[in-house]
Design goal:
Elements lengths: L8 E12 L5 E12 L7 E4 H14 L6 H23 L16 H8 L6 H5 L3 H7 L3 H14 L5 H24 L13 H4 L3
Antiparallel strand pairs: 1-2, 2-3
Helix pairs in contact: 1-2
Length: 202
């Protein structure tokens, strides 16, 4: 008896992908990924979402009528194609300029914070008014200042953006360390006495 494939757990995500045309003009488009965890498994397999769903349809169509897996793959295709369509509908960006998702200097949390009030681009963030900053909440003004600085340096080099990204990561690491100290946790690498097995010199 042929074992029927079970529906995996799938989580979709999106990234802003930079695209250059033949004239060197840069635009951005959404690139969708699927993080797939097989039923009963733990490992995540990253797939191009649209290619993966297309492959599911092909498997359902090309497998013979006596292959019991064919109908199951058709079910997979119908199920996940609907989920991807719903995800796309909720992730569509109406923006002109450079998408925040393409900027390394902003964390995912900061990007979500801006997109929650429909600010999707670096230019929109740099021009955000006081009302918008108030709705964004804590850290909004620092995000706007960062956007202004990145726009000012844009066209000169990309080092400013990379440095800003490193500063963000460093600040997050420092905050985590402070939280660990406040909680009385031991720092990584600072452990107690060595284990006895390490003290034995044979």
């Amino acid at each position: 008896m042929i074992q029927q494939p079970r529906l995996p757990y799938v989580q979709f995500r999106v990234e802003a992908l930079e695209v250059k045309d033949e004239n060197g003009h840069i635009t951005f488009k959404n690139k969708y990924w699927a993080d797939v965890v097989p039923a009963g498994g733990k490992d995540i397999v990253v797939k191009d979402a649209e290619e993966w769903i297309s492959q599911l349809r092909t498997k359902g169509e090309t497998r013979g009528p006596f292959d019991s897996n064919a109908s199951e793959y058709r079910t997979w295709f119908e199920h996940f194609s609907k989920l991807l369509a719903q995800f796309k509908a909720g992730e569509e960006m109406t923006t002109t300029g450079t998408p925040l998702r393409a900027i390394l200097a902003f964390t995912k949390a900061e990007i979500a914070q801006a997109e929650a009030i429909r600010i999707y681009s670096l230019e929109e963030l740099a021009q955000a008014n006081e009302e918008a900053l108030r709705h964004m909440g804590i850290g909004a003004r620092a995000m706007k200042d960062k956007a202004v600085q990145l726009l000012a340096s844009k066209g000169e080099n990309h080092l400013a953006e990379e440095n800003a990204a490193l500063r963000v990561k460093l600040e997050a690491l420092e905050a985590r360390i402070e939280d660990m100290i406040a909680a009385g946790m031991k720092m990584p690498g600072k452990v107690g006495r060595p284990r006895k097995t390490e003290e034995i010199d044979e």
